[in-house]
Design goal:
The chain has 13 helices and no strands. The protein has 280 residues and is mostly helical. Helix 2 packs across helix 13 and helix 7 runs antiparallel to helix 10. It folds into two domains: 59 residues; 215 residues, MetI-like fold (Orthogonal Bundle).
Length: 280
């Protein structure tokens, strides 16, 4: 096969790849568009046939109804506070633990890390009753402590940061030790700044997980003042019917912070995914 044939094959392969990516993007965007479109429709037009992709007429009344029907502003504040605190604690503790497992040498380091990885195989549902009993023992039921502390760190975050910190040269850390820098100083002044792409990846994953978490907030909270946004959206459903326009409006509001976080951190997120894959 000549040079021209090779170029044709490359062009066909690249075209097929682009078409597959475009199709995947459309498949992921269509449900989001339908959510927003439904939130702008009149209730009578939700199940119209043929389906109306563009609301006619479009209305914002369902967004106003969501805020007045339930204490939606309180739900939004609770989710924002819990997700922010969980993200900050995960970034700090997981990066600190990842540095210890990646660069420090202590007895049983690899065995402890292996045991931590084994816990990833345990479903969260198995820990629900012991965790609830523990929260009840600390008097943290229906409090912010009960919502934040159980998610303050994660084994996945430790693993992610360890793999990324492995890419930092040991010579750079050794030179800092020779200059008299403490281990925490090395972590704070050298490791943490160089790990920003990995930190951004961890922050996005953690924020999304905490923001969309439904099961644990539903179990550990009982009062309307402590409910988070996913639980509040579930409360929009009635006993025998579902108000789809208000539910879609609440879901659109809930999706907005995640979109904003990703837009601001997408470059660091992509760098973290590509540069953090280190094989040692």
């Amino acid at each position: 096969m000549g040079m021209s044939g090779t170029r044709v094959l490359r062009l066909v392969g690249r075209t097929g790849l682009y078409l597959a990516l475009i199709a995947s993007s459309i498949a992921m965007l269509v449900p989001f568009y339908w959510m927003v479109s439904t939130s702008l429709k009149l209730e009578a037009d939700v199940f119209a046939y043929p389906p109306e992709w563009i609301p006619q007429p479009a209305t914002l009344i369902h967004y106003a109804e969501v805020w007045t029907r339930l204490p939606f502003a309180r739900f939004f504040f609770n989710s924002l506070l819990v997700a922010s605190m969980v993200t900050l604690s995960n970034v700090f503790f997981c990066t600190l633990a990842g540095y210890a497992f990646a660069k420090l040498r202590f007895p049983g380091r690899d065995k402890v890390f292996f045991v931590l990885l084994l816990t990833l195989m345990v479903p969260f549902q198995i820990n629900l009753i012991p965790l609830y009993k523990l929260m009840d023992l600390f008097k943290w039921i229906d409090t912010y402590w009960g919502l934040i502390v159980p998610g303050a760190t994660s084994v996945f975050g430790i693993y992610l940061m360890r793999q990324y910190i492995l890419s930092i040269p040991d010579e750079l850390l050794d030179s800092a030790r020779v200059d008299g820098c403490s281990e925490f100083g090395i972590f704070w002044r050298i490791v943490a700044p160089l790990s920003l792409p990995g930190v951004a990846t961890l922050a996005i994953f953690t924020f999304m997980g905490a923001w969309t978490d439904f099961l644990w907030p539903m179990i550990v909270t009982s009062s309307m003042e402590m409910r988070t946004l996913p639980v509040g959206i579930a409360l929009l459903q009635e006993y025998h019917t579902t108000n789809w326009t208000q539910t879609m409006a609440g879901s659109a509001i809930a999706a907005l912070p995640m979109i904003i976080v990703f837009l601001f951190m997408q470059r660091q997120f992509i760098e973290g995914l590509t540069a953090g894959a280190v094989k040692r």
